[in-house]
Amino acid sequence: MGETVKERGDASAELVKSMADKHARPAARYYSALKDVMVCGKGRYTLVKDVDDVENGAYDKPLPCFGCGIGWFSFLLGFVFPFLWYYATFLYFGNYYRKDPRERAGLAASAITALGFSLLLVVIVFFRWF
Predict the structure, then answer these.
(1) Exposed / middle / buried, residue 104 (Cβ in 10 Å: 0-12, 13-18, 19+)
(2) Which UniProt keywords apply (predicted)?
(3) What is the C-alpha separation between 97 and 61, in angstroms, rounded?
(4) pLDDT in tens, 38-49
(5) Alpha-carbon gap, residue 33 to 54, rounded angstroms
(6) Radius of gyration of the chain from Cα atoms?
(7) Which of 31, 55, 111, 118 is the most exposed place for a label (fewest CB within 10 A)?
(8) Over the chain, what is the mean pLDDT?
(9) What is the pTM of this model?
């Protein structure tokens, strides 16, 4: 209602909002836009996907490193090779978990363990010299 389509001479269209619609409540704006879509969309059909045509989600694929993720794999294997905790800490602070949020907990656990291991090393070295 408040939005109109303005056609130009070069066969393109431009969506224009009226001033009254800009100052209306947000809910009223959405209702008017929805009402316009419902009126304009009459007589059109929507393609319904088949049940067998289901697309896999982003998190349906298994995590790397035997399905437990790089973070937890580094955490567990870090007790044998502590360098892996620092590798996972580097990945954590490099925002590697933005690729897959399921990695965040394991990377954070490895980062915390690397911090504790570093403090333990500092305490051992400090008390050994004094």
Answers:
(1) middle
(2) Membrane, Transmembrane, Transmembrane helix
(3) 15
(4) 555 555 666 666
(5) 30
(6) 28
(7) 55
(8) 75
(9) 0.54
Amino acid found at 102: R
Which residue matches tokens 């059909």? 45
Cα separation, 73 vs 55, in Å, equals 29
What region does 88 belong to: left with phi over 0, alpha with psi -120 to 50, or beta? alpha
Q: Write the DSSP string, 69-96.
A: HHHHHHHHHTTT-THHHHHHHHHHHTTG
- d(CA 6, CA 11) in angstroms, rounded, equals 10
Structure tokens given for 56:
């896999």
Spatial neighbors of 1 by CB under 8 A, at least 6 apart, are 21, 32, 35, 36
Beta bridge partners of 16: 4
Q: What is the pLDDT of residues 92-117, one digit of tens each?
A: 999 888 888 888 999 999 999 999 99
